[in-house]
Amino acid sequence: MKRALGHSWQAYLFLAPALILFAVFSFWPVGYGSYLAFTDYSLIKPAHWVGLDNFRYIFDNAMFVAGLKNSLLFLLIVPAIQVGAMALAVLVNNNLPGIRLFRAAFYVPVVTAISVVGIMWGFMFHEQGMLNYVLMQLRLVNQPVGWLSDDAIALFSVMFVTIWRGLGWYMVMYLAALQSVPAEMQEAAILDGANRWQRFWKITVPMLMPTIMVCTIMSVLAALKAYQEVLVLTQGGPLNATFTALYYAYDQGLKHLKLPRGLAASFVVSLCCIAIMLPCLRYFRPKHR
Amino acid sequence: MHAQRRSLPQPILQYVLLCAIALLCLFPFWWTVVTAISSEGNIFAFPPTFWPKSPSLENFAEVFRVIPMLSFLKNSVLITFLTVFWKLILCSLAAYPLARMQFRGRKLVFGLILATMVLPSEVNFLVNFITITKLSLVDTYTGVILPNVITAVSILLLKQAFEEVPQDLIDAARVDGASEWVIFWKIVLPLIGPWLATVGILSTVEAWNDYIWPFIVMSKPEKFPLSVGVLYLSGTYGSSTRVIAAGTVMTVLPMIAVFLGAQRFFMRGIDGAVK
Amino acid sequence: MSRYRLLAASLAIALSFNAYAAATEHIEFWTMSLKPKFVPYFDDLVKRYQAQHPGVEIEWVDFPADLIQTKLVTRIVAGSPPALVNLNVPWADEYARDGLIVPIDSLLGDGKSSYVKAALDDLTFSGKTYGFPLYSNVTVIAYNTQLFKQAGLTRPPQSLDEQLAYSVQIFEKTGKAGFSPSLAKADGFMLQQGLPILTDGKAAFNSPQHVALIEKLAKAYKAGGILKDSLFAEDNFPAAIAAYNGGRLAMLSAPPTAVKRIQSDASDIYAITDIAPAPLGPTGIVDGGWLIHFAVPAGVNPKLMPEVAKFARFITDDENQLAFAKLANVFPTTIAAANDPYFQHLPPNAGASEKAVAIGAESMKRSRTLYVAGIEDYDELRRALVNAVEAGVTGKRDPKAALDAAVVIWNKKLAKQAH
């Protein structure tokens, strides 16, 4: 008991620099931003409380509603990225000659600036672009596919690019996590006659759980908050099919300077994030430690 | 080590798989490199050329002529290094109590940190710029670095790293009378080496590619980092697409080099220290 | 002790008086994406001005066009805006409405008469002028003579109908697209064809003529004449110029500066490129001029204003505009400079980019930025219109039904704004 209380002030000493910086540069702007969502702030005039007006406006707007739906659809990428990144990490977790270069290769999409990513994938996805050219040469399709111009599949094309960019990032984390799986446990299991699959599921995955939890949460948040790929590839089209909630927030708030509306949209996304994150945290908690 | 070698599928199959994925990951960057190295021909020809025509380094030289690359590089290196250095220190300091100390308000602090990941952040740069202005840190490196030094993601990752360190180890040290400070610096921190390297890499890339915040804080273009500087190559009166490609390549290559070099730091395993 | 304090205080006061007397007025002006190309021009301009006006310090800063808006807004909110900033007309319209830039009628004074009327009209919102016109870009048509020959066409198109007909023919004979209209600016497109967007404050773009226009476009689209890539994207120019450079597009609407880029990026296509004036609609107006001007942000020290006005008029005067226009392949916006024979004269071995300047100069007189001004949240309405046009042109929906639906959205919104 004494030890527990005695730790408090020490803990806060450790936390002090971070908490101060956080308070000034994170809590304050984020709190102020949340407050502004309920006002009519217009940059040079002082803000007045308007309650739920901004929220009423955005829910009345086709672009935001489509965006909210699409942001929820974006959650589909979470299992894809996590499983993919884990698989990649396992694939490169060895000493094959040249493996270091392969790891770096998988990381290149993460390092490339989003604007370049947009240009290149735009080039690939155009109706007269590379992808259709290759597919038609291979006779897999006989008409060009509108990867970015067909409103039924445009969102999935954008999601694909997001996955492409994210795999390397999470791969690095899973790779680091794999390093802490002790070799002895693996060897003991092999002596016991377990095959690769069993070892993977019974030993590796449980040890990776903490990392899986952190990565899943980050991935869920990133999916709900996706907007950069939309910005460089489609700007919301075709026919609002690739609008995401945060792209709407960015567009309204920063391009057209209707900050309160952008912040209201962002606030709604935050509520969704919290709604989804809580069950995730609860799901992972018992298994963890 | 024996265990791993015996259980791997044929190396040939592995290489095929690796190459296929690498191709998918690399081709946009490869096109950029080809464009940067070519000195003639039509970049937009279709089907696109995946091999440079009349290769030369002329475009790279042109980038140095057109924009003050050395200044931009210097700024990038400075900002990135300082950001990552302070980030690793301050975030681990914050993550340790959250992982391994019992104290009042722990859940609240953790919740607040998660909250910053979730709540609206569009006005962050606006509000932070006003704060920086009030602190007279406009046009300074400190002004650029300060808000980026603490991030929720880094704290989360490092917290999880600390949680991997066996509790017994820490308890033993506490019983031995070691202070938390000593435990932190001498015992726990060295054990999370790979995670520090991981967070270090991810932060390095983030700081290197960050362009909006440094752009807003710095008033004088000479102080811009490379991520902003290369934008001067584009624009209506900008350089040719080839030169822009060369600029892009020069922004990406340092990060690949850093990644290759840092691999040895996070590929080392923990050998089990509970004895 | 107190004697020293008195001495120190009086010294301080004396020194501050000195400083005040020698106070320099500091004017910071921002340009968009003009560095590093025009460094000698602006450095020289600043030097000349400072020599003629001792006591004034001019600072020139240039920012990439993509980022300048963010920086401007941040600085206005933080209370440290620049004295002058480069903007284009749509941005100026929004900023004027939000009060982020201030009217400059009083600063223009009698200098107003030296500017081209069309340019000033573009910058007049709610009866007040909001910018010092700097330079303008007019679109011309760059066309691929080889594709034209293959399609059996002998002269450039002179109207939209001809453009559409040519595109279909080009696709039939060569398999390449004909042209790529900027349909994200569907409102400007319709206005240029003489079709109103609003009548008596109500949406009016579902008349039979509007529907006929969409049907014409849909027909050409279906026949393959219109480039499908990024057709409705906010900025379809990168896709269009990439296609043109790759020989996949026969006609490209571009300003003369872009024609110069074709020369460096795709020399083989440049060699077979010829230029034609952009077709006029029944209105006799050429859409697509990019008018760049200097605006004064909100929050600039009022005491500084007279000096700001002087400098703004200096940097946009006949002599300086003419020099800049020649350097940059753009068009000046003062009457005297615009009438300079330089723009009418075609050098003997004129390549595409020289022709573009001469032909553009001719169109310049009839160039206006076409859009609907003065409506709150206009962007949302525009997008509703563009979506309707997209559905109609791509064949996803019957054009009349799509336009009708958009009209309903517009009228609902406009009714709300009316009170």
Map the helices and strands.
The complex is a heterotrimer of chains A (289), B (275) and C (419).
Chain A: H1 2-36, H2 53-59, H3 62-74, H4 77-92, H5 99-111, H6 114-125, H7 130-137, H8 154-179, H9 183-191, H10 196-224, H11 228-233, H12 245-255, H13 259-287
Helix pairs in contact in A: 2-13, 3-12, 4-8, 4-10, 5-8, 8-10, 9-10, 10-13, 12-13
Chain B: H1 2-7, H2 11-37, H3 58-66, H4 69-100, H5 106-118, H6 124-134, H7 141-145, H8 152-164, H9 167-175, H10 180-191, H11 193-209, H12 212-217, H13 226-229, H14 241-266
Helix pairs in contact in B: 2-14, 3-14, 4-8, 4-11, 8-11, 11-14
Chain C: H1 2-21, E1 25-32, H2 39-52, E2 56-63, H3 65-78, E3 84-88, H4 89-98, E4 101-102, H5 105-108, H6 117-122, E5 124-125, E6 128-129, E7 132-137, E8 140-144, H7 145-150, H8 160-174, H9 186-192, E9 198-199, E10 202-203, H10 208-222, H11 237-245, E11 251-254, H12 256-265, H13 267-271, E12 273-277, E13 286-287, E14 290-297, H14 305-315, H15 318-328, E15 331-332, H16 335-338, H17 352-364, E16 367-368, H18 378-393, H19 399-418
Helix pairs in contact in C: 8-10, 12-17, 18-19
